[in-house]
Amino acid sequence: MARIVPVLDLDRLDQGESERRTFLVDLRTAARDVG
To answer: CA 33 to CA 6: how far, in whole Å?
Structure first.
């Protein structure tokens, strides 16, 4: 079964500390899911 690689919006890194934190959590989650 093919895995789908999530697309993360890198512009979120420049949208303030709260959005940056959320982006990093999403990035960690995606890394764990994809392996």
So the answer is: 9
CA-based radius of gyration for the chain: 11
- Residue 28 domain-assigned (yes or no): yes
Number of domains in the chain: 1
No. of H helices and E strands in the chain?
A: 1, 0
DSSP summary character for residue 15? S
| Boundaries of domain holding 25 | 8-35
Q: What is the pLDDT of residues 12-27, one digit of tens each?
A: 889 999 999 999 998 8
Give the global pTM. 0.67
